[in-house]
């Protein structure tokens, strides 16, 4: 939805906003923003995202190399080139490597990048919407609803059927949708969506859904219970290209709509009162952002489980480096989140190969020390 912003007040914003009360100040010049002393220009935007995109590609190639059986970088590049050029290989060894790369590693790496992008983007949006630096994609309870949906599917044997690959994510997404409706109905008051009500509702339903998940896990058979616990800790598996394409289309639409709110997020970060003064329909913006973040989170959790810390840590780390302008922060966090999860999943599947560690453990081990650093040396960043 297009938001009408009062230009006369926008030009006065640097004078009416106190620096200590916000992290960024808008400029009245189109395409420019003063953010923590830095001016966002087109060249800086392109250079930053270009470097991050190149880094993501390089990390992706490195991840293709590592596995239970490392594959030489030359083989990796040759397999990718042959696939793009539709060229058939005559070497049996190359065919085996190509099968491993294209049918196992590449889909999983792409899934990891997509999930990381989505979690980091949702984390940025929620931290601005809730004005809470500790907010993450799981704070509103939709993720627990998705996990409960998957748990119910496993309880009734969906995971043991030939439809498991599509049915389990469908159960998870359905659970996320039900949680979204319940949370919205409970939090909405007289057509408004108060932030405190949203947070309290999310906390309460998180506790209820988590208790139900633990109950289901406790009554499952041991082998199914172990699979459920691994999924809850966050796990990536190689999807089929058909399901991967469907997920890419869905999440791309969700992220595109979320990215359209970058300017609104900049203003919401100043507070609802300031946003209303500048002509933003804050209730409509909150509803749109809540629904978008919930739908993206539900879809991600349904295919990857509960991968923590990415939506909380990545926005903080990126904000420390590039500033708080959401027009750069949001896409940059998406790229960093995708790159980080690709690397974390590679560590998870190769550290004690052939046994795999749930990737959520790796992200928690990486994210925990970062918050210890913030708590001990950068307390101002948590204020």
Average pLDDT, all residues: 81
Query: Helical segment tally?
Result: 15
- The quaternary structure here is single chain
Q: Strand order within the widest sheet?
A: 1-2-3
From the alpha-carbon coordinates, what is the Rg to the nearest angstrom?
22 Å
Shape label: globular
Number of strands: 3
Poorly predicted parts: 1-37
Task: Tell me the β content.
Answer: under 5%
Name the helix and strand elements from N-terminus to C-terminus, one letter apiece: HEEEHHHHHHHHHHHHHH
Instruction: Name the helicity range.
Output: over 70%
CATH class equals: Mainly Alpha
- In whole angstroms, how far apart are the ends? 31 Å
Task: Describe what this molecule looks like in 3D.
The chain has 15 helices and three strands. It has helices spanning 7-16, 42-65, 73-84, 92-130, 142-155, 164-187, 195-219, 222-232, 241-259, 262-268, 272-277, 282-304, 310-322, 326-350, 359-377, and strands at 25-26, 33-35, 38-39. The protein has a three-stranded antiparallel beta sheet. The chain is globular and about 65 Å long. 43% of the residues are buried.
Q: What characteristics describe this protein?
A:
single chain, 383 residues, three-stranded antiparallel beta sheet, 3 strands, disordered N terminus
Short description:
The protein has 15 helices and three strands. The protein has helices at 7-16, 42-65, 73-84, 92-130, 142-155, 164-187, 195-219, 222-232, 241-259, 262-268, 272-277, 282-304, 310-322, 326-350, 359-377; strands at residues 25-26, 33-35, 38-39.
């Amino acid at each position: 939805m297009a938001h009408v912003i009062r230009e006369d007040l926008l030009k006065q914003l640097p004078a009416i906003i106190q620096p200590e009360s916000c992290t960024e100040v808008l400029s009245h010049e189109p395409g420019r923003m003063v953010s923590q002393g830095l001016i966002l220009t087109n060249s800086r935007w392109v250079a930053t995202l270009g470097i991050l995109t190149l880094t993501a590609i390089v990390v992706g190639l490195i991840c293709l190399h590592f596995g239970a059986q490392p594959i030489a970088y030359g083989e990796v590049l040759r397999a990718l080139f042959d696939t793009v050029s539709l060229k058939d290989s005559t070497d049996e060894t190359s065919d085996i490597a190509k099968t491993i790369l294209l049918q196992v590693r590449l889909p999983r790496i792409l899934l990891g990048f997509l999930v990381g992008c989505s979690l980091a983007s949702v984390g940025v949006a929620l931290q601005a919407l809730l004005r809470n630096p500790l907010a993450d994609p799981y704070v509103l309870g939709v993720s627990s609803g998705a996990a409960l949906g998957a748990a119910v599917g496993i309880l009734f044997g969906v995971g043991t059927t030939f439809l498991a690959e599509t049915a389990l994510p469908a159960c998870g997404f359905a659970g996320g949708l039900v949680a979204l409706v319940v949370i919205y109905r409970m939090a909405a008051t007289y057509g408004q969506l108060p932030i405190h009500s949203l947070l309290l509702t999310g906390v309460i339903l998180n506790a209820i859904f988590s208790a139900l998940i633990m109950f289901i896990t406790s009554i499952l058979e041991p082998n199914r219970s172990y699979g459920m616990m691994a999924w809850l800790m966050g796990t990536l598996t190689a999807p089929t290209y058909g399901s991967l394409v469907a997920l890419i289309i869905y999440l791309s639409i969700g992220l595109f709509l979320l990215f359209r709110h970058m300017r609104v997020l900049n203003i919401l970060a100043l507070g609802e009162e300031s946003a209303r003064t500048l002509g933003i329909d804050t209730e409509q913006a909150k509803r749109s952002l809540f629904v978008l973040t919930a739908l993206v989170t539900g879809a991600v959790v349904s295919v990857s489980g509960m991968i923590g810390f990415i939506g909380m840590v990545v926005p903080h780390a990126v904000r420390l480096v590039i500033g708080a302008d959401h027009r750069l922060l949001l896409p940059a966090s998406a790229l960093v989140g995708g790159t980080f999860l690709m690397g974390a999943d590679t560590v998870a599947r190769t550290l004690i190969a052939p046994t795999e560690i749930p990737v959520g453990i790796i992200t928690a081990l990486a994210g925990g020390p970062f918050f210890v650093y913030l708590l001990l040396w950068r307390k101002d960043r948590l204020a």
